[in-house]
């Protein structure tokens, strides 16, 4: 067993069946990612669109590629033909562009709304009120080629486990309050290498794990 295979195995055994594992492969070369593929992993997450597109071209086509990073509207076209799920959608403008590009390829693109849960000042993510407004807006309901499937959140980058848990609990209760109103919201994407066990305790259905599978990255990208 190579390291990646062993790491994957250990993480999988700690996940329950209802939690989907996204293997975050950003900055890692195809040769390393193929070790995870050969160990059965089929969902990979990247945070740069061009890097993801290049990997998509060079790798087996049964991989489901998730865009987990911030998306600039003008770059949606580089992934619209293959991306499976976009995690960090936080504006109507972006949703409209995803819909437009998806139509060109006769596809539907799955999306999650990114909710701002971290205390630290972050430019990205919706507050709860704006997320509700977006879900209720007729303009969003009229989009035929996007499926909003759930919510995504990123906790504050801190060693304070209690704070991280509190932030996860906050998005989980927001999720629970709204799942019945919007039955298509089924995915709660929270949890990374350092905090995924807490995230699962708090109701995560999708974890995004990079360094615990592939090892530390050369440069520190969150
Ligand atoms: C990089 C990244 C991850 C994975 O981080 P690790 O700590 O390496 O597991 C998860 N989510 C997002 C949005 C990321 O950018």
Automatic annotation (TrEMBL):
Coiled-coil residue spans: none
This protein's name: Pyridoxal phosphate homeostasis protein
Functional note: Pyridoxal 5'-phosphate (PLP)-binding protein, which is involved in PLP homeostasis.
Organism for this UniProt entry: Aquimarina mytili
Residue numbers of N6-(pyridoxal phosphate)lysine PTMs: 26
UniProt cross-references to InterPro entries, sorted A to Z: Ala_racemase_N, PLP-binding_barrel, PyrdxlP_homeostasis
Keyword set, alphabetical order: Pyridoxal phosphate
A Pfam family this chain is assigned to: Ala_racemase_N
């Amino acid at each position: 067993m190579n390291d990646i295979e062993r790491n994957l195995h250990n993480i999988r055994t700690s996940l329950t069946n209802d939690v989907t594992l996204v293997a975050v492969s950003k900055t890692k070369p195809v040769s390393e990612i193929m070790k995870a593929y050969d160990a059965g992993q089929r969902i990979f997450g990247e945070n740069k669109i061009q890097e993801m597109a290049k990997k998509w071209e060079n790798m087996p086509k049964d991989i489901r590629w998730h865009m987990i990073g911030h998306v600039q509207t003008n770059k949606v076209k580089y992934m619209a033909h293959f991306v499976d799920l976009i995690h960090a959608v936080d504006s109507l403008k972006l949703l409209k562009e995803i819909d437009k590009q998806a139509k060109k390829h006769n596809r539907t693109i799955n999306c999650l709304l990114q909710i701002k849960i971290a205390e630290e000042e972050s430019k990205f993510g919706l507050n709860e009120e704006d997320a509700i407004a977006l879900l209720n807006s007729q303009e969003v309901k009229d989009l035929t080629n996007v499926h909003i499937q759930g919510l995504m959140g990123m906790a504050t980058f801190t060693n304070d486990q209690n704070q991280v848990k509190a932030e996860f609990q906050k998005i989980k209760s927001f999720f629970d309050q709204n799942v019945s109103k919007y039955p298509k919201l089924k995915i709660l994407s929270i949890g990374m290498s350092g905090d995924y066990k807490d995230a699962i305790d708090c109701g995560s259905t999708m974890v995004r794990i990079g360094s615990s599978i592939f090892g530390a990255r050369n440069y520190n990208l969150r």
